[in-house]
């Protein structure tokens, strides 16, 4: 006997997103300017929402573009948002902009990361971070979180590993909460099983939590700033961001300038 899998309906998916965001039907209806009765009918399957209604509710539920396409498919509509590879001609302007930002950030490290923290591009300043990492962690696709927290990656050289681990895992948990992505959940299970604890109290003199990484006999101290495209209508672009690292002190700035220039 062959088992069958029941595919989720658009109503059940919308209800799950609403509950994930901690909203009642009434709160969602007020935010989206629709009746609570209609929201209820959509969730229970008594009404089939139009593509425009799905989009309206998805916007107010902060549903990412990938998952908006899934909502449309569940309702029997075609996906609205394209998903091109980063090297596709349609994305050339954006990919060129990312490359310009990577190059302009030299002599400091910067990477282009996707939704799962896989490295899609990086500038040459990142080479200084990778010395001593196991070869298998550097085989594409390189995952930035795995590379950082793996015991054969950067982790043994991070002086404040507990702080940095807590910072990275909290970012990962936040993205899981936003996307409900099973691949991210699996990544969290993997990383949280690595040796180390989420501990460490921030130094009272710090205004950000830096990553303090030993490079030879010296310690490099950097903090990150993330940037993304705010007006994306393509799934690939919507899921990309640049992680740019800046020196947290003048000694680190000198080290990075010497590491690239010398």
TrEMBL record:
It comes from the Bacteria. Residues 14-68 form the HTH cro/C1-type domain. PANTHER family: BLL4672 PROTEIN-RELATED (PTHR35010), BLL5781 PROTEIN (PTHR35010:SF4). This is Helix-turn-helix transcriptional regulator.
């Amino acid at each position: 006997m062959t088992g069958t899998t029941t595919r989720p309906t658009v109503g059940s998916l919308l209800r799950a997103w609403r509950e994930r965001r901690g909203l009642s039907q009434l709160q969602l209806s007020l935010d989206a300017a629709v009746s609570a009765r209609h929201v209820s009918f959509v969730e229970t399957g008594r009404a089939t929402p139009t593509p425009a209604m799905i989009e309206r509710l998805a916007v107010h539920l902060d549903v990412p573009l990938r998952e908006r396409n899934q909502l449309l498919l569940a309702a029997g509509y075609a996906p609205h948002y394209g998903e091109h590879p980063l090297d596709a001609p349609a994305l050339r302007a954006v990919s060129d902009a990312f490359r310009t930002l990577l190059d302009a950030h030299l002599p400091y490290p910067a990477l282009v990361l996707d939704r799962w923290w896989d490295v899609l591009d990086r500038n040459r300043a990142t080479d200084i971070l990778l010395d001593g990492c196991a070869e298998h962690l550097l085989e594409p696709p390189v995952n930035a979180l795995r590379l950082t927290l793996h015991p054969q990656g950067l982790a043994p050289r991070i002086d404040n590993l507990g702080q940095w681990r807590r910072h990275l895992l909290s970012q990962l948990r936040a993205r899981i909460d936003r996307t409900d992505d099973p691949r991210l959940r699996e990544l969290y299970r993997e990383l949280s099983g690595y040796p180390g604890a989420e501990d460490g109290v921030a130094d009272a003199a710090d205004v950000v939590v830096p990553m303090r990484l030993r490079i030879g006999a010296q310690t490099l101290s950097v903090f990150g700033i993330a940037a993304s495209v705010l007006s994306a209508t393509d799934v690939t672009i919507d899921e990309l961001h640049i992680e740019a690292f800046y020196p947290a002190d003048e000694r680190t700035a000198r080290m990075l300038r010497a590491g690239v220039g010398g």
